[in-house]
Amino acid sequence: MDHERMDALERRIAALEQRGEAGPDAAVEAGTFWALQGLKARTPEPGAVLFTGAVSTPAGAAEWQQGHAVDDLLDEEWAERSAALAALAHPLRLRLLQAIVGGTATAAELGALEGVGTSGQVYHHLGQLVAGGWLAAQGAAATPFPPAGWCPCS
Q1: Same domain (yes/no): 85, 143
Q2: How many CB atoms lie within 10 A of CB 101?
Q3: What is the CB-side half-sphere exposure of residue 120 using CA atoms within 13 A?
Q4: SUPFAM superfamilies, per this entry (predicted)?
Q5: Which CATH number goes with the domain that contains 92?
Q6: Which domain holds residue 140?
Q7: pTM of whole model > 0.85?
Q8: Count of structural domains, the chain
């Protein structure tokens, strides 16, 4: 291989490595608040709230977008959301939910995690997460449901 060609390859590799080191945010640095700017451009006063995501985890991939006008949110009966929030009000439930999103699928696997307690305790906490709408029970497996529920604010 001639010297010029080797130099050209080294420059290309260095450019690619530099692009990788800059991270994914560098591509949108000029528009850090691109989602916010888009929401404001599409929403009349008094505004709206937008939750959006695209994730790929061992439990699966999910994409979602939820938007709510401020007036609609203020008109809702917030107390109706208390069951969903209460289901998350225990550190062990958060740990179980995180493990499930991370790919741990069965109650037996969850029960084998360090410090989760007895199988009865695990089932109790899984039941609370199902009742709160954070999980869907499927036999011995528990799967996140709905994927948008991975964001505790939805």
Answers
A1: yes
A2: 21
A3: 0
A4: Winged helix' DNA-binding domain
A5: 1.10.10.10
A6: 78-149
A7: no
A8: 2
